[in-house]
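Please check this today:
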Amino acid sequence: MLEHRRGSHPARWAIRANLPRARGPRTYHSGVVDTARPLRVLVYSNDADTRQQVITAVGRRPSGELPEFEYLEVATGPVVLERVDAGAVDLAILDGESAPTGGLGLAKQLKDEVAECPPVLVLTGRADDAWLATWSRAEAAVPHPIDAFRLVDAIVAVLRGRNAA
């Protein structure tokens, strides 16, 4: 099914048309967590080390009240757009320092173009860049270097439905 979204480009519609839509409850909207199904967490960065740092810091089950996490590592912006638009993601963690497509701009694009966009957490270059996360409409921001406790706290707050930006 194709839906026109403000700012979306017709060339991407064909790509999106062939992706299967994920079915099942969106646990992050209702506040009720279905522990039978793992949460699908997309981790985007052009740097494989950053992706691995995030996955290691968060782990398979960061909180007892959440189901296990299933990670999807992504290194390019177009793949992020495809996966999120297909409904294959419950949480997106985007690196704001990625190049050539930064996670902050990507977060803004997702929020503007994807009808049922999952929660987005952005990794900023420094704590003073939190205003950029607000501009991007991300639910939370965590600065580099990655602090495991701060990252897990932000993820749990976002999945509970609280804004942690």
About this structure: The beta strands are 39-44, 69-74, 91-95, 120-124, 140-143. Residues 49 and 147 are 15 Å apart (CA to CA).
